[in-house]
Predict the structure.
Amino acid sequence: MSEADAENKRIAKNTAVLYVRMLISMFIGFFTSRILLNQLGVIDYGIYNVVGSIVVMLGFLNSTLSLSTQRFINYELGSGNYDRLSKVYSSSIVIHAALAFLVLIIAETVGLWFLNTHMNIPTERMVAANYVYQFSIFSAMFSIIMIPHSATIIAHEHMKQYATIGIIDVLLRLCVACMLYIIQTDKLIVYALAMFLVVLANYLTYYIYCKKKFPECSFIFSKDKQLYREMLSFSGWNIFSSISMILNGQVVSIIMNIFFGPIVNAARGISSQVNGAIGGFVQNFQIAVNPRIIQTFAADEIQTFYRLINQSAKFSFFLLLIFVVPVWINIDDILQLWLGTVPEHTADFCRIIFISSLINTFSLPLATAANATGNIKIFQLACGVFEILNIPFSYLLLKLGNPPVSVYLVQLTITISTLLIRLIVLRKLVNLNIYLFFTKIVFRCLFVAVLSFSTMMIVTYINVESILGLLSSIFISLSLTVLSIILLGLNREEKAIAMNLIKNKLHIK
């Protein structure tokens, strides 16, 4: 077996494990949301989403610092410097503990003031909203402190254990939701408290596993000032970009709450969950690929580095497209079957978010490639400045009386623009061939997407009022999308890789 085949098999194995986790999580997550909407009601469900978004805004460091920590761990693994690896772990613990404390200070001052003076929440639910806020703050803090441990597991590619912990997490969340059936006191407050305990249990699981499995996960206070500067500088520019992304997402929830109230926040929360469930397949694939992208750059395997960028962009798009097309076509019936009572605007929010997510799949490996270089100042500054424009444009459109869906059109425009900026900057960082990326990846993917969405003309003749009709519509649109990808989306080499991976997974000789 060639080195490339072995690498593809390794990535496929990790991806398959993460997909199992994703399928279980998606199924349980949808069931949990229906319970929550039923037990909390639309108003309290919307309050939980918008109040939680304040803490997400303050805890924006989570995903950014996870990627930053993974980058340093993967780089040392790729270069074989295991002495420095231990220092990276200890330094990341110090940095994350300090940032968790910083989040606490900001949340209990500026955040608390904003919650009680500017949020559009019914007066009789303000006490419950404050309880939710406090529990969410502590959840955010433990999530930040947990990052070095989850990043270490991913960097070492222990995907089975990572997936198992994730499945346990969603099962606990389901148990919490079911518990609301027997709760007689304020269900919103009880739910927020229980969710904090789930996060705490998650943190302890990650911590114990890392202590037992990885020698470098033994904390010794590091005095390496140069390493602190490198990690903080790298994280700092990623943080700047993350602030822009939060302004492109979570702060918009607050703006929509100010103009339309918590019911629109409920629709936004549901659409985000649908997109998160479908997009999770791509994210899990990228999680499996990211360590290899960084390690090949560290090992100076540049051609493999380019190949992983291009292939992961294409495969990410097609993986998302397979799920987006059937859901897009049948979104109204799916939401009705899932929720029973569907908040207004939910379907329209979902459709535009799907398009934005499809475009964003091209950016995922580009961001990882930039992180691999360590020279991310220009990359993150250029993207961050452009993305931050979402707030004034969204506010202006809503102020002029436009409907809530206009905010998502702004988001789509920014997603397309930032993709172009990323490509231009990355050409200077790693000499990426933009012409090749567009002709071989972007244009081919978009052509297949247009062809796949044309299946709407076929499935419109199917009566989807029954479960059998809905399943038939999903099956036909899914089958035609997969057929389009195989015939027109993949080149000969990629088809051979896909077939070999399928045969290896099914043990076919």
Observations:
- Residues 3-506 form one domain.
- The radius of gyration is 23 Å.
- Confidence is low (pLDDT under 50) at residues 505-509.
- The chain is about 85% helix and 0% strand.
